[in-house]
Write a structure and sequence with these properties.
Strand order of the largest sheet: 2-7-1-8
Strand content: 25-35%
Number of helices: 5
Order of helices and strands: EHEEEHEEHEHEH
Helix content: 25-40%
CATH class: Alpha Beta
CATH architecture: 2-Layer Sandwich
Length: 144
């Protein structure tokens, strides 16, 4: 059964680092039941992780106007979104989907009639360490 897991928390808390580590650990045991849904964001392509898609503000606006995004939010001068097609494909495939979102959109997913058929579980990042510290402790290469 498909499920949607949301991560949310303050910028710089290490959510991306944890999700990348989790994805790597699942790949190591060949677990293909979990899908890390890539979020689209208006950021320099050299500063995104591989669970993100960099788009220009113009591309973002066009996709938004065309109704391609299931979730959208703004934070710190950057626009973020989760593609509707990615969520729908994960639901049809019965995947457990992990989304890196914002606290501002958690209620939108939980209350959306489109996603009621999948349980929505929220996990908030409650780390006090910054991403660079986590990467050092986990012995990971810098994200950018």
């Amino acid at each position: 059964m498909a499920a949607i897991y949301l991560t949310a928390g303050p910028s710089g808390a290490g959510k991306d680092t944890l999700l990348l580590c989790a994805r790597e650990a699942l790949a190591a045991v060949q677990d293909t039941t979990v899908l890390f849904v890539r979020r689209h964001l208006t950021r320099d392509p050299s500063k995104v992780t591989d669970i993100e898609v960099a788009v220009t503000p113009e591309q973002f606006a066009a996709a938004s106007a065309a109704g391609e995004y299931a979730l959208e939010w703004d934070a710190h001068g950057t626009r973020y979104a989760i593609a509707k097609a990615d969520l729908e494909a994960g639901i049809v495939a019965g995947k457990r989907m992990v989304l890196n979102t914002s606290r501002s959109v958690v209620g939108k997913v939980s209350c959306s009639s489109s996603y009621r058929r999948s349980p929505v579980i929220e996990g908030r990042a409650c780390l006090r360490w910054k991403g660079a510290y986590l990467r050092q402790k986990l012995n990971l290469a810098p994200l950018w």
